Amino acid sequence: PDGAAFKEDCDVIQEKTDELSDLVKGLHSRLDAQKQAKIDELQEKVKEYEQEMDRLRDLIGDESEKENEIEALRERNRQIAINLRDSQEELEGADRKNNMLNDKFSEVNNALTSATEELTELRRKTRERE
Predict the structure, then answer these.
(1) How many CB atoms lie within 10 A of CB 50?
(2) Nearest CA-CA partner of 46 in 12, 8, 83, 2
(3) Angle at CA 12, nearest 5°, toward 102 and 111?
(4) Which has the closest alpha carbon to 26: 105, 82, 86?
(5) pLDDT tens by residue, the chain, 130 residues
(6) pTM of the complete model beyond 0.70
(7) What string of DSSP letters covers 5-53?
(8) Number of other residues whose CB lies within 10 A of the CB of residue 23
(9) Which residues does 115 contact at the CB level (< 8 Å), separation at least 6?
(10) Do residues 94 and 31 touch, judged by C-beta distance below 8 A?
């Protein structure tokens, strides 16, 4: 009876470990997808900025119109710079979270290894008593 309960405990521990591993993998995937989406968004903003700069170079008109357009582009450039900085901070935050998850995963993995070693030792002692 004790051996069956012990085996059942081992199976539950293994099942929970597998669930934790799947959760960590899922979190990693979500973080990677979020990072890629941010990168794509930033690349699109850079393209827009480059188009605006090209348009500025091609502008023909009176001096005040050009000056207004330049100021609007400068403001847009400032906003893009702010957005890029904010996005970089978000990416760094995501990297920190990713590192924390890696640390947690390592802790769980180490705990599982210790539990497995303890279970193996208990099995050995149980066999010796039998």
Answers:
(1) 10
(2) 83
(3) 35
(4) 105
(5) 678 888 898 999 999 999 999 999 999 999 999 999 999 999 999 999 999 888 777 765 556 677 888 899 999 999 999 988 998 898 898 889 889 988 998 998 888 899 899 999 989 998 888 7
(6) no
(7) HHHHHHHHHHHHHHHHHHHHHHHHHHHHHHHHHHHHHHHHHHHHHHHHH
(8) 14
(9) 13
(10) yes
Phi–psi pair at 91, nearest 5 degrees: -65, -40
Structure tokens at 114: 């210790």
What phi-psi label fits residue 59: left (phi over 0), alpha (psi between -120 and 50 degrees) or beta?
Answer: beta
86 touches 27 (CB < 8 A): no
* CA dist., res. 39 & res. 49, Å (int): 15
Q: Which amino acid is it at 11?
A: D
Is the Cβ–Cβ distance between 45 and 80 less than 8 Å? yes
As a whole number of angstroms, the distance between CA 40 and CA 87 comes to 11
Q: At what angle do helices 2-58 and 63-129 cross, to 10 degrees?
A: 170
Residue 64 tokens read as: 């005040």
